[in-house]
Amino acid sequence: MIRGILFDFDCTLSNRLESAYYMYRWCLHEIFPDMDVNSIDFEARVQRCMLWDEYGTINKRHVFNKIKEKWAPDLDVESWIPRWYENFHNYQELLPDAEPVLQELLQKYRLGIVSNGDGRLQSRKIDVLDLRKYFEVILISHDFGADKPERSIYDEAAHELHLPNEEIAFVGDTFDTDILGAYKAGMLPVWYNNEHRVVTMWNVLQAHDFNDLRKIFLK
């Protein structure tokens, strides 16, 4: 019986796609202040950055190097890396229906977050969205000392929830970290595929939005 649920953060609780879109709009407006932000040319640059960003899986230095190569030869790439991380938390948005479903889940389950990333940066994003009230456990890989899919971070989350691994579900959007790690740790993996962009032959429980999670866990 499932008694606890662990969530990834980016693209599972937070709407990272939308957050990144508005963050890149801000960056490009700062880099190209004379461009009309309502023009199709400006939007085309934003959309190109979104492709370079690869759903947040790639180092931001790559994106700013591409901006420099294509449009801004004098861009100081190294100064933009910290600016991204100092400001990204300001553009966080929850995924639709996340908050009401979390409120319902909290009545039945122990909840936690396990996120890869820098502790200070991830904590800022969590705090901007006011999520701590829902979660007993928040583990961030940089602070813990191991990244998903390392088993130790899953085991520690289970320990802090005071539940055995087999009584915990893990909801995440990235197969080779969230799903792989949860499976090998003996948890129930739920692949959160809100962008409908995955194809797999692996038999894994999938959710496309928070209403699907409601059906899975509150039926």
TrEMBL record:
GO terms for molecular function: hydrolase activity. Keywords: Hydrolase, Magnesium. One of its GO terms (biological process) is small molecule metabolic process. It holds the Pfam family HAD_2. Its cofactor is Mg(2+). NCBIfam families: HAD-SF-IA-v1, HAD-SF-IA-v3. This is HAD family hydrolase. It comes from Stecheria intestinalis.
